[in-house]
């Protein structure tokens, strides 16, 4: 009877300790992004065509560049680094400004509007 009482008390104490303590979980997300590329537009129409084409194609979501996780008995620390939106914008500008002169013409914007969705679809 004494052994049963000891097991019962020990079980209740262990259950209580687990129930009260829980788990300490920490999650951190860091955004790694590039400065936005400086570009000018030949006209308002060139800018509109470029931004409409850019907006019509979903940019890749937060791409996880680095992830680390540390778990101890009751502590879990999860951290990750994701790519910011400027990197995708800069890729679009680089793709559109075919002569690399820092100005997007109406002609370049028209080609971009036609080719960007296919380019993005091919990248997956
Ligand atoms: Ca150009």
Helix count, DSSP H or I runs of 4 or more residues: 4
Radius of gyration over all CA atoms, rounded: 27 Å
Helix/strand-derived category reads: alpha/beta
Helix content: 40-55%
Strand content: 15-25%
| Chain-averaged pLDDT | 82
Please give the number of β-strands: 5
Distance between the termini: 68 Å
Q: Outline, from the CA principal axes?
A: elongated
Unreliable segments (pLDDT under 50, ≥5 consecutive)? none
Q: What can be said about the biggest beta sheet?
A: 3 strands, mixed
Domain module tally: 1
Order of helices and strands: HEEHEEHEH
Quaternary status of these chains? single chain
Q: How are strands sequenced across the largest beta sheet?
A: 1-4-3
Bound molecules: calcium ion
What's the arrangement of secondary structure elements?
Elements: H1 2-21, E1 24-32, E2 40-41, H2 44-56, E3 64-71, E4 75-83, H3 85-96, E5 103-104, H4 106-123
Parallel strand pairs: 1-4, 2-5
Antiparallel strand pairs: 3-4
Helix pairs in contact: 2-4
Bound molecules: calcium ion.
Calcium ion is lined by residues 97, 99, 101, 103-105, 108.
């Amino acid at each position: 009877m004494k052994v049963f009482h000891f097991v019962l008390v020990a079980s209740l104490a262990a259950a209580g300790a687990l129930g009260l303590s829980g788990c300490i979980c920490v999650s951190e997300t860091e955004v790694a992004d590039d400065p936005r590329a400086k570009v000018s537009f030949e006209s308002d129409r060139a800018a509109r065509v470029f931004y409409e084409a850019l907006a019509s194609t979903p940019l890749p979501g937060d791409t996880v560049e680095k992830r680390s996780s540390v778990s101890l008995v009751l502590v879990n620390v999860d951290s990750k680094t994701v790519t910011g939106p400027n990197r995708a914008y800069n890729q679009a500008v680089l793709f559109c400004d075919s002569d690399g002169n820092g100005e997007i013409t109406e002609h370049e914007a028209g080609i971009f509007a036609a080719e960007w969705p296919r380019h993005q679809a091919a990248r997956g």
